[in-house]
């Protein structure tokens, strides 16, 4: 395997109908680590600068600042020197452009991939396994790729020998399809990376493993007992939503649809789109129209990363006339509202929404879901901040139980959480 030959207990194979995949050659127990994968290339999100080391992605206080650009932070001189080959792509440009320096995260990641001086043929065949040519890309994505290429030329090209325009567009499309979002313990976006070994793992809405992040490494752990011959399967998407929504997202982002057992049976769809109980049954047309409204609103919220609380509440009122509070579209809007409350430092409002979300999350997500553990974490920390210690400890214990399986008992986040609980 690329970057990890000889991984014990895991092998490549041709997965029927899916192409290349991974399967286990021995039994793995729930929570057991299958393998670790070092990032081929990665980039820390600009908004997280100062909280994480740019080189090793360790979360740490009192990081040392780059003396030239004053924007990059490191654990120590060793980390700073190790990262210079990548940081030099940005350092002088940050200084020159000042506040006008604004390449996309994708442009920054592609610059780093190119800086490794890997030939284009090797880059596509060994690092980026899934190839989707530009004719497969819709107009919106094509425009985004064009903007990313322009940003690469403007902000990141000084130390790079760039391929021609068409090859760059193809490379951006490939990285978008193969990249992984690095997230922290509360599922906040930390950065983006390419993990060649992890990119071999196929999707299922009934995953057998979960990917978590430890510094610059991805760790793959079993979320159920696995026997020899079982395929290693992760979910590429948020599993909260009904079958049609999941497959629309898979087609948009990864160019395929899922035919797993859950997608064929749609067994959870009815409870996911639960409607409000009324004396007169709600007409199917009313439900279908509200589903369309909900999907349109979610798309608009994805395009606008700063929804206002009033917008969330208005959507909840509109949908609440038809949908039950446990309906996934209601949950989506409540989650947005909770995020706005957290941003506004309205702890009471965040708790109010979080408590409505938590029980349905536990029912609708698979066991050992990071979406559930992150909700327990958020609520637990909010309770603690408001000196509601009994509730806080209870929520944090439930988060810990999931994280010990998903992250492993020795992960820094797990150790920090145990320490956090004892201190309170």
UniProtKB/TrEMBL annotation:
One of its GO terms (biological process) is heart contraction. PANTHER family: HISTONE-LYSINE N-METHYLTRANSFERASE SMYD (PTHR12197), N-LYSINE METHYLTRANSFERASE SMYD2-B (PTHR12197:SF290). Its EC number is 2.1.1.354. GO terms for molecular function: histone H3K4 trimethyltransferase activity; zinc ion binding. The keyword DNA-binding does not apply. It catalyses: L-lysyl(4)-[histone H3] + 3 S-adenosyl-L-methionine = N(6),N(6),N(6)-trimethyl-L-lysyl(4)-[histone H3] + 3 S-adenosyl-L-homocysteine + 3 H(+). Transmembrane segments: none annotated. InterPro entries: H3K4_H4K5_MeTrfase (IPR050869), SET_dom (IPR001214), SET_dom_sf (IPR046341), TPR-like_helical_dom_sf (IPR011990), TPR_rpt (IPR019734), Znf_MYND (IPR002893). One of its GO terms (cellular component) is nucleus. This is [histone H3]-lysine(4) N-trimethyltransferase. The keyword Transport does not apply. Keywords: Metal-binding, Methyltransferase, S-adenosyl-L-methionine, TPR repeat, Transferase, Zinc, Zinc-finger. Gene3D superfamilies: 1.10.220.160, 1.25.40.970, 6.10.140.2220, SET domain, Tetratricopeptide repeat domain. Residues 53-91 form the MYND-type domain. TPR repeats lie at residues 373-406. Residues 8-237 form the SET domain.
